[in-house]
Amino acid sequence: MTTRKHTALPKAQILIEALPWLTRHHGKTVVIKFGGNAMVDEDLKAAFAQDVVFLRHAGLRPVVVHGGGPQISAQLEKLGLTSEFKAGLRVTTPETMDVVRMVLAGQVQRELVGLLNQHGPLAVGMTGEDAHTMSAVKRYTEIDGERVDLGRVGDVTAIDTGAIQALLDDGRIPVVSSIARSADPSEKGGQVFNINADTAAAALAAALGAETLMVLTDVEGLYADWPNSDDVISQLTASELEKLLPELASGMVPKMEGCLYAVRNGVNTARVIDGRVQHSILLEIFTDEGIGTMVVPDAPQGGRK
């Protein structure tokens, strides 16, 4: 008898390719920063939700951190408020902060939780304010040697992972908006800060002792010689990345600074991947080649992955 050729066999081969990565990542925490086109394109949003739920059912512990720059700008415009940026950061007045909270916790987070929960009662939304998860101090920037006040923009100073750990232990998927409470107990009125979502995700990944930090963006990864070439750096060490930081485009700086902070504070790998590619998260974690750029500590153990 001849062996029948099954048309589904390639699917089995793909699953087997994922086996070593399933084994390696099982039970590990993965922090994913949700942003870019993946946040505004309906098909990409749906694929993102599928990927995160797949990770959860594959035995990983995903945590999603999100901002909402385009949505915040759109809402400010509707209200007749001006969006102002300095050194790549949104100047956040008290009025703007009200809009930031409303959009992040009331719109972006709600939509993402809804997409994830189409696949089961998994996702729980929260902000960095909740349970004092993120505390921050006022952030200033420097332009032409002068200190510039950005308003209610903050730097994370402390993270209490208790609420997130409890959700993870209960099998849930925390979805965290990048807002933090003031770290100064003397401040009255519960002042809150707008936190860059890349920075918040990196700080949370480090505090959770995550296996990896994944940052979705609108480019393929970190380019080796942009704009002269579109070759993507597949892997580099923390020290190699640190040398490149001064040459990077402003939009990539907070993402790569976040990756650098993560791997220097206990996270095994940090990855920047193309959120414009459907199922890019699964391609990065569960295939031999991976996609995007992976940052590793200065003394990496083994090769890619």
TrEMBL record:
UniProt site positions, description: Transition state stabilizer: K33, K255
EC number: 2.7.2.8
Catalytic function, reaction form: N-acetyl-L-glutamate + ATP = N-acetyl-L-glutamyl 5-phosphate + ADP
Protein name listed in UniProt: Acetylglutamate kinase
Residues that bind substrate: G68, G69, R90, N194
Residues in the signal sequence: none
Keyword Nucleotide-binding: yes
NCBIfam families to which the protein is assigned, alphabetical: argB (TIGR00761)
Keyword field contains Repressor: no
Subcellular localization: Cytoplasm
One Pfam family this sequence matches: AA_kinase
Function (record text): Catalyzes the ATP-dependent phosphorylation of N-acetyl-L-glutamate.
The protein's annotated pathway: Amino-acid biosynthesis; L-arginine biosynthesis; N(2)-acetyl-L-ornithine from L-glutamate: step 2/4
CDD domains given in the database record: AAK_NAGK-C
Domain Aspartate/glutamate/uridylate kinase: start-end pairs: 28-274
Domain of life: Bacteria
Molecular-function GO terms, alphabetical: acetylglutamate kinase activity
Similarity remark: Belongs to the acetylglutamate kinase family. ArgB subfamily.
Keywords: Amino-acid biosynthesis, Arginine biosynthesis, ATP-binding, Cytoplasm, Kinase, Nucleotide-binding, Transferase
